[in-house]
């Protein structure tokens, strides 16, 4: 009885409960991520001509509160190639996750600025998604950047699935994605989309 009432024992018990709770939370997120991955792989949408502006406007509404909190500004230039024949569900995944990443990894030193543009590049439609956030150490994180369940920072609450889903949706139709980034100098995602025909 003395052992059960011992303060040190209670501290240890609380520590184990906290660890167990964190592990359960992590497993739930991982399971949710696996479900999302399977869901995305099973998407069978019909292709449409979709304007980039309409996709962004839909997501601005979804992210409105977070964008205001980050005092973020989004500048666009879709004049060179305003629309694409694509699966809307996939285009939403690409925009949603790149926008979410920019918000998660924004700098504490200045307001977030995001620039999105589109242009024709050989047989691809090139979508450029640039931010002035924390940037990525590609030497350290480059190999794991698009791997599922690999987070760039332990400080974020995600599970490291967003960029993997972006890569999957882009490559599923023969596209590709490249990254230019340096720590403290922001990130530029170059998304080469191949139109559905």
Poorly predicted segments: none
Q: How are the strands ordered across the major sheet?
A: 2-4-5-7-6
Strand content: 15-25%
Please give the number of β-strands: 7
Tell me the radius of gyration. Answer: 20 Å
Assembly level: single chain
The biggest beta sheet reads: 5 strands, mixed
Average pLDDT metric: 82
Task: Specify the structural class.
Answer: alpha+beta
Question: Helical amount among residues, as a percent range?
Answer: 40-55%
Give the ordered list of helices and strands.
HEHHEEHEEHHEE
Number of helices: 6
Give the overall shape, derived from the CA principal axes.
elongated
Q: Note the gap between the termini.
A: 74 Å
Any overview of this molecule?
The chain is of the alpha+beta class and 197 residues long. 42% of the residues lie in helices and 23% in strands. It has helices spanning 7-41, 52-62, 64-69, 88-104, 138-141, 162-171, and strands spanning 47-51, 73-77, 83-87, 113-121, 124-131, 176-181, 187-193. Helix 4 (88-104) packs antiparallel against helix 6. The radius of gyration is 20 Å and the shape is elongated. 23% of the residues are buried. The mean pLDDT is 82.
Summed up:
By secondary structure, the chain is an alpha+beta fold. The protein has helices at residues 7-41, 52-62, 64-69, 88-104, 138-141, 162-171; strands at residues 47-51, 73-77, 83-87, 113-121, 124-131, 176-181, 187-193.
Observed structural traits:
197 residues, alpha+beta, 5-stranded mixed sheet, two-stranded antiparallel sheet, 7 strands
Topology:
Layout: H1 7-41, E1 47-51, H2 52-62, H3 64-69, E2 73-77, E3 83-87, H4 88-104, E4 113-121, E5 124-131, H5 138-141, H6 162-171, E6 176-181, E7 187-193
Helix pairs in contact: 4-6
């Amino acid at each position: 009885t003395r052992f059960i009432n011992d303060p040190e024992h209670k501290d240890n018990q609380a520590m184990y409960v906290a660890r167990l709770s964190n592990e359960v939370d992590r497993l739930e997120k991982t399971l949710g991520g696996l479900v999302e991955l399977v869901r995305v792989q099973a998407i069978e949408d019909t292709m449409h001509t979709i304007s980039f502006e309409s996709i962004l406007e839909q997501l601005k509404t979804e992210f409105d509160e977070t964008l205001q909190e980050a005092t973020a500004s989004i500048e666009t230039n879709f004049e060179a190639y305003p629309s694409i024949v694509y699966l809307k569900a996939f285009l939403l995944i690409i925009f949603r996750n790149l926008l979410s990443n920019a918000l998660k990894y924004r700098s504490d030193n200045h307001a977030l600025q995001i620039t999105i543009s589109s242009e024709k590049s050989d047989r691809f439609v090139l979508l450029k998604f640039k931010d002035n956030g924390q940037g990525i150490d590609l030497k350290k994180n480059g190999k794991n950047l698009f791997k599922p369940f690999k987070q760039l920072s332990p400080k974020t609450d995600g599970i490291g699935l967003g960029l993997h889903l972006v890569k999957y949706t882009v490559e599923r139709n023969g596209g590709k994605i490249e990254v230019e980034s340096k720590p403290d100098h922001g990130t530029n995602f170059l998304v080469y989309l191949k139109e559905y025909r």
